[in-house]
Design goal:
Helix content: over 70%
Number of strands: 0
Number of helices: 4
Strand content: under 5%
Distance between the termini: 21 Å
Radius of gyration: 16 Å
Shape: globular
Length: 135
């Protein structure tokens, strides 16, 4: 089998699909953050919008990397970094405030699939931007 096809399939399965899952929450976050702008704490609404928007940009960056064969551009690298920061902030909030039981093997598998896999894939592609492989 062609190694490029296998690499793309792994990228889609381990990075893009979990990012698609998070995209639903990021889109909802933009909407809820907009509503939060008109509450008693508008700065939290603005923070929520920024975090969610960074997640959407990260999804766009992952989509570019996973579904095309083009090299990583500066814009894609910035989108990937926005997504990594957004994902790490959201995941750390969920671990601290969400009551995730990190001693549970199922929770660790979910954390690995939904957080670590997309983050590592994005960071590998950011590294690829700075240190391109010789051709």
């Amino acid at each position: 089998m062609n190694p490029t096809v296998v690499n793309k399939a792994l990228a889609i399965g381990l990075a893009w699909l979990p990012a698609l899952f998070w995209l639903v929450f990021a889109a909802a976050g933009v909407i809820l953050g907009t509503g939060g702008l008109f509450s008693e704490a508008p700065e939290l609404g603005l923070l929520f919008i920024a975090l969610s928007f960074a997640g959407v940009l990260g999804f766009f960056g992952l989509t570019w990397v996973c579904w095309t064969s083009k090299p990583v551009t500066t814009t894609t690298m910035i989108f990937l970094l926005c997504g990594v920061v957004s994902l790490l902030v959201a995941a750390s909030f969920l671990v601290i405030e969400g009551g995730w039981n990190l001693g549970d093997p199922i929770t660790l598998l979910q954390l690995t699939y939904f957080v670590i896999c997309p983050t590592v894939f994005a960071l590998i592609n950011v590294r690829r931007y700075f240190l391109p492989s010789p051709t």
